[in-house]
Every structure is written in structure tokens, then in C-alpha cells.
Amino acid sequence: MVEREEILPKYWYNIIPDLPKPLPPPRDPPDAEFSRIDLLRKIMPKEVLRQQFTVERFIKIPDDVRNGYLNIGRPTPLLRAKRLEEKLGTPAKIYFKYEGATPTGSHKINTALPQAYFAKSEGVEHVVTETGAGQWGTAVALAARMFDMKSTIFMVKISYEQKPQRKTVMQLYGGEVYASPTNLTEFGRKVLAENPNHPGSLGISMSEAIEYALSNDYRYLVGSVLDVAILHQSVIGQEAMKQMDELGEEPDILIGCVGGGSNFGGFAFPFLGAKKGEKYIAVGSYEIPKFSKGDYIYDFPDSAGLLPLVKMITLGKDYVPPPIYAGGLRYHGAAPSLSLLMKEGIIEWREYSEPEIFEAAKIFAESQGIVPAPESAHAIKAVIDEALLAKKNNEKKVIVFNLSGHGLLDLPNYELMMKRSSK
User: Where is the Tryptophan synthase beta chain-like PALP domain (predicted)?
Assistant: First the structure.
């Protein structure tokens, strides 16, 4: 049996030097009154920003961060979904990396820890961020507390209302949580003036967090769409590769859901870089159709346009996503590296609707006993489709997916889905 410390990687993996073509660089808008790139230097920890722009393939994980990973339960388990295989009657083998085993219940802590560590190393005492479904805000609140810092989280209003337990957990970790849009920022007040009942969006919350950090000389931690978050999340895929090797298995199909891209990229990119796997499938929401209807263009990651333009698949910074059941997927764009790989046809995509993912979540819960996060249920639906295709073709495929978190704090959303499905 391989020891925990041996499975946990000592380096983060950066896919940027292994992309099929150079990644289009971030840039300021042509009519810019100020440099957004200079703004990043003011609000992000210096080492986090350096890692965002690095072309190094491997970056050493600091010992304090690695110890932090061990403390929160890394490496997370790689489990075989044997009962799901039996329920589907498929010859395929199904494995899942269970990120719900962390204290915060999701993969988000994997980048919150190093970003908080680098902020603290630079003398920062207060960090700020946004959160959609609440997993990222929860991770930041815990990571800040682990390094004796304060945290402020702007939570998308509809998720704030749908998931009060997430707010409670963040507050237990010492975080201050506000329903965004708020009256605390100029941008929030502008949004509320136009629509007092605005449900909020990740782009709006991101803009508020950045403005708040800038106004108070705090530091901003980024959760998903920038490639530095994917870099830190690479611990997932690297662990999974070692665990698969220990089992003597080679993956054929790798699957993950996509909000901004850190969950999918952190899981799949190490396999892609190592040339392991035949098919990579990124799964999004039918109700937020960025894969099917988005454009591959330069766009702002945030709604206020405070961050630099990045080239990505996007529905546009002004897109207002509907208040769907999976708050973590309510984002208008996808990470630049993921967007490029999708445009090159290296990564496939799927989009599924609420009835489809609700049925997939039920099947998984009934067979494996784990209630998945609604976001991860999108990945499960793709897994089921691929397993049934293997059954039809009588192929012994090995399917591996990332279960980005549990859904135990999403039960109110599941209750609503149950009511809608019964009509």
C-alpha cells in the first residue's frame, strides 16, 4: 500500500507549456482608462500572480501548504462505483475521485489553501473573494482562519437565499458573508439601482469583491476561471493518476463538470499532459449554455470589467444567468486554457438540463449512497451515458470522473427539484 505522503504530489502541474498552441495573453481593453493588469498587482498576492503568468511545467508546493493538504484529508479517495456499474449493467469500470471528503465538502480548498498561505507570507491580514454555490467561499473562510487572517465573502444573492447553511459554515469559520449585489460597493449599488431584486451572478460578486479589496487594501483570492486556480487543483489529477497506477488501471474516459473550469482542469489536465486517456468530457448546464452558444473571444471575467480581458468561451460579461439549482455553474465563461483545448477539439463538451441531472443524482445516490453536489450530478449524467454506450458496444471502458463535492448542503435545492419532477 502506497503511503498518503507518497500519493500527495510535491509539485503542482501547469498545462500551459503543453497546450497545442500558445495561450492568448490577457490584455487591457483598447479604450482603457487604467491598466487592469496593473490592478492585479494591487489586489492579488504577488506569488499567486506570478504563478498565473508562469510557463513552468512544475511548481514546488511549499511544505506548509503540503502539510495543510494532509491536514484537510488529502489525498482524497479514489473509489470504484461498483454498484452503479451493476445498476447500469455495463461492462465498463467506473471510478470517481471523491473531493467531497475534505472538511469543506468540495475541491475548492485545494487552491484556497495556497492562495491564503501566499497572502499571509506577504503580511496580509484580510482576504476577500466571491462565491456562487458557496463551496469556494467556505474554502476561503477556512483557509484564511488556518493562516490567522480575516475573510470577507460576497455570495451570489440567489445562492445566499437558497443555501443558508453555507453562510452558516462560513460564519463558523470566521468569515463575513454578504448577499451580492450589496450596498457596500459602488458597482453593487449601481446594479441594485437598476434592479432592486437582482438575483446576482458570479460576475457581479467578483466585481464587488475586487472593488472591496481595492478600496480597503485587502487581497483578492481567485476561485476558478484564472489558470492559477487550475494549477493548484492539479493535486486532484496527480493523486488520481498514482491511485490508478496502484490499481493497475489505465483510464479511457475522463469526465468533470465545469463552472469556470478549475474542477475539471485540476482533475483532467494532469492526465492530458501525461497522455493518459482517449476521451475528455467537460460537462456544463443546459440552462447556462456557454458551450453551445458562447463565443471564443476576449471578454472580462467579471461583470464590472475590472479584470484584464482574457480569451475564453463566454456568453458575455453582462449575461445574467437564471437562478438555477447548481449555483457553481452559473458563470458566463470558461478558463482560457480549457477554452483553447475545447476549441482545438481535444476536449469534448456536453450540456444537460435539470431533469436529466436530477435523475442521474438519484441513480448515484441510490447505488453509491453519496448525495452528489448538483454541479457534480452533471458529470454523473455524462458517466451514465458513456457507461450505457459501452454496454451497447460491449466495450470494457475505464471511466474516471471527479466528484467535486457532496450535496448535503444542497438538500433545499434537491427538495425543489423533487417537487418540480413530480408535476
Answer: 73-405
Are the beta carbons of 254 and 401 closer than 8 angstroms? Answer: yes
Domain ranges in the chain are 4-64+108-220, 75-105+235-421
Model-level pTM? 0.94
pLDDT digit string, tens, across residues 296-329:
999 998 888 888 999 999 999 999 888 776 767 8
Residue 381 near residue 352, CB atoms below 8 Å: yes
β 398-403/219-220 pair status: unpaired
Report the phi/psi class of residue 73: left, alpha or beta, with left for phi > 0 and alpha for psi in -120 to 50.
Answer: left
Q: What residue has cell string 470577507?
A: 152
Nearest to 209 by CA among 194, 224, 222: 222
| Alpha helices by DSSP H, 147-223 | 157-162, 164-172, 186-194, 202-216
Q: Are 108 and 411 in contact (CB under 8 A)?
A: no
370 by Cβ neighbours in 10 Å (0-12 / 13-18 / 19+) ranks as buried
CA distance linking residue 112 with residue 250, whole number of Å: 30
CATH of domain 4-64+108-220: 3.40.50.1100
Phi, psi of 283 (to 5 degrees): -120, 130
- Name the one residue in this structure whose C-alpha cell is 472591496: 212
Q: Which residues of 124-145 are buried (b: 16+ CB within 10 A; e: fewer)?
A: bebbbbbbbbbbbbbbbbbbbb
Q: How far is CA 72 from the centre of its chain?
A: 18
What is the enclosing helix (H) or strand (E) of 63?
Answer: helix 63-71
CA distance 36 to 310: 11
- Give per-residue pLDDT as tens, 335-391: 999 999 999 999 999 999 999 999 999 999 999 999 999 999 999 999 999 999 999
| Rounded to 5°, angle at Cα 161 from 157 and 166 | 95
